């Protein structure tokens, strides 16, 4: 892997900066980076943050990314690139995918937005380049982990299905205070969206949807009590892939006890006719602080009957805290989200798949052993 790859990163916020740093520091290949953002100063600051936080070789450039359409500066960056990594809000994903298709680039994104993901699948049809979608944490890593456990369960138990596949992630702060029992560690828009849009699940072997925040329960993971509830997007394509094979599959977001009751109160107060996502985001931003000291809790479990008729459960949990990469410290949510994106970039650049690649199509063993995921999740 001696070639130096040209990588355009759309979005120079926390995720765009982090994936650029990971690519430079942990990859088994060299990269030249082009960071684009609608805020030119933020793009320049992110480029400097990466350059000054890493001694590894490779150029780091900043450019202005227009809010709509394209520009000569954007077209110049894309004309030099091998791949476009999309770290923008999910609503921008189809636009970025079209640019990747137009410039004959590989493409990977982070978004949990279901409708936008379906639109990109249409855009990527017939492409000679790979479009690897929903590559972050949830959707992303937790789906590969869950699918890996499911495959292992079937092998070990001599069966071709399971009763339950559960995937859980909590991006949390180390402390939580009333009334919200929460602190922002990532996009408020993303949090509000996943709380409002419906969740795709499997019930009685059938792929279906359920309202988000409609199946709350208390769980204990590694001795800590959390509440979990359905939220949108985190199951990726596993409900479609495993329908007919798993009786009950879902993704739920983990929170500290008390948070979901507070969210229900806010949603009940939404004025008639107002977008509930906008209302919830506004109300949360008025009350919930941003915090740097974070942690990420990840859990996946598979349960069912083995060939002998006994019930078995296979599960895995992880707790990820902030980590040092180069001369920088990445928040847990930064490293866990962008490790999968960086690993996906490596897969696209080295294996050259064509068309859409979804989470269920990733080889779990190969993915888990890659330099980015193994360093962040399994160090």
N-to-C span: 23 Å
Radius of gyration, in angstroms, nearest whole number: 20 Å
Tell me the structural class.
alpha/beta
User: Roughly what is the average pLDDT, rounded to an integer?
Assistant: 96
The number of domains is: 2
DSSP helix fraction: 25-40%
CATH architecture of the largest domain: 2-Layer Sandwich
Regions with little confidence, pLDDT below 50 for 5+ residues: none
Q: With helices defined by DSSP (H or I, 4 residues minimum), what is the helix count? A: 13
**CATH topology tier name of the largest domain:** Dihydrodipicolinate Reductase, domain 2
Largest sheet features:
8 strands, mixed
Question: What are the salient characteristics of this protein?
Answer:
single chain, 379 residues, alpha/beta, Rossmann fold, Dihydrodipicolinate Reductase, domain 2, 2 domains, 8-stranded mixed beta sheet, 7-stranded parallel beta sheet, 13 helices, 37% helix, 28% strand, globular
């Amino acid at each position: 892997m001696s070639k130096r790859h040209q990588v355009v990163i759309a979005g120079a916020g926390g995720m765009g900066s982090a994936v650029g740093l990971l690519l430079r520091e942990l990859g088994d290949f060299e990269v030249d980076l082009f960071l684009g953002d609608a805020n030119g100063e933020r793009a320049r600051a992110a480029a400097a943050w990466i350059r000054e936080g890493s001694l590894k070789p490779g150029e780091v450039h900043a450019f202005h990314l227009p809010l709509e359409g394209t520009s000569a500066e954007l077209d110049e960056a894309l004309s030099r690139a091998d791949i476009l990594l999309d770290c923008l809000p999910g609503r921008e994903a189809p636009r970025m995918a079209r640019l990747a298709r137009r410039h004959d680039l590989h493409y990977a994104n982070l978004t949990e937005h279901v409708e936008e993901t379906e639109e990109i699948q249409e855009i990527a049809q017939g492409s000679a380049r790979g479009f690897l979608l929903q590559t972050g944490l949830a959707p992303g890593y937790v789906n590969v982990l869950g699918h890996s456990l499911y495959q292992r369960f079937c092998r070990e138990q001599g069966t071709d299905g399971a009763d339950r596949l559960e995937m859980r992630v909590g991006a949390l702060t180390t402390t939580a205070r009333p009334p919200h029992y929460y602190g922002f560690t990532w996009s408020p828009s993303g949090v509000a969206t996943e709380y409002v849009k419906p969740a795709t699940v499997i019930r009685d072997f059938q792929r279906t949807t359920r309202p988000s925040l409609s199946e709350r329960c208390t769980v204990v993971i590694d001795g800590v009590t959390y509440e979990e509830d359905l939220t949108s997007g985190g199951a990726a394509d596993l409900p479609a892939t495993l329908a007919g094979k798993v009786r009950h599959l879902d993704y739920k977001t983990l929170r500290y006890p008390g948070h979901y009751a507070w969210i229900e109160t806010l949603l009940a107060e939404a004025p008639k006719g107002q977008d509930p996502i906008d209302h919830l985001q506004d109300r949360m931003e008025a009350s919930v602080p941003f915090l740097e000291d974070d942690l990420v809790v990840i859990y996946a479990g598979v349960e069912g009957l083995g060939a002998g008729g006994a019930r078995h459960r296979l599960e895995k949990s992880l707790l990820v805290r902030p980590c040092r990469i180069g001369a920088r410290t990445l928040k847990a949510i930064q490293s866990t989200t962008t490790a999968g994106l960086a690993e996906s970039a490596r897969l696209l650049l080295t294996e050259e798949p064509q068309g859409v690649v979804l989470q269920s199509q990733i080889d779990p063993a190969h993915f888990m052993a890659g330099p980015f995921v193994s360093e962040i999740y399994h160090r």
